[in-house]
Design brief:
The protein is mainly alpha-helical. It folds into 2 domains: 53 residues, no CATH class; 241 residues, MetI-like (MetI-like fold), CATH 1.10.3720.10. The protein contains 13 helices and 2 strands. A two-stranded antiparallel sheet has the order 1-2. The chain is globular. Belongs to the binding-protein-dependent transport system permease family.
Length: 320
Amino acid sequence: MNAEQSLAPAAATSAASRKRRWGPHLWPYLFALPFVLAYAAFQLYPVLYSFVLSLHDWNGISEKTYIGFKNYVQLWTNDPLFIKSLWNTLIMMLMFIPLTLILGLVLAYWTFQLTRGKRLFQTINVLPYITTPVAIGFIFSYLFDWQTGLVNLLLTKLGWLQEGFYWLQDPWGSRAIIALMVIWRNLGYFMIIFMAGMTVIPQDVYEAAKMDGSTGLHTFRKITMPLLRNITVFLVVTSVIGGLQLFDEPKLLYGGWSGSAQVGGPDNTALTVIWKFVDESFISNTRFGYASSIAYSLFVIIVFFSILSYRLTAPKEDKR
């Protein structure tokens, strides 16, 4: 009993020491635990489960059948609509990403030079960005409608067209309208981001350039644009990611004012990868395993193009 009594204080002292040692380090993990559990339940688990689902044939009702990578093989070798949707997405990205970057930069530089009405002009340009996509779909469906559209009405009044043009049923016209929708919506956002980068450029640089006789265009090309390189890289990468996930604009354009609810537009020339995914999941089919293979294929494509766009636009010293 004496030996046990002598060991008890030592054990209590050791436990108290461990408690003091681990106590301060344990609280951050406890505070982060609710977010980690919520993320694991509502984000991580669905992502992992969708990959498992892509290896099965399942319509949401019957039993799942394991088929391995057959969904991926069929998707890339025997589904021309998927290839076309990917091609359409890339074409529209090439239409709106360069134009949005150039116009956003020019508009930001011009707005940055304003002395009066700057905030009003910024607010007007940002309004489309906070407009709901449903409203944007209605607006552009109405503007480019064949019979009642204001664009056709204006062009015929000016004598440029003899009769209304089927904008929404023309393959390249539909793509151009979708690109215009994206540009109109995101131009204000690009302008604000570029202006935020311009505000941190030291004014001493501009004053020194002015003393050396640099003109406005030369200063813009040789000073402003190089110093905004990191901002441009950020916008390019995020635009590529957002462009590959393009869905709202084409879907709402063909389900808005016209009410046609036409999947993919004329001859599927407006079909995007996400629209193809939604169609396979909930509209035309209920092939959840096949749709999951589309989602994971798009994930790989996004990673590839994100890395490629970063390598092409980032400064050489940042490329590793």
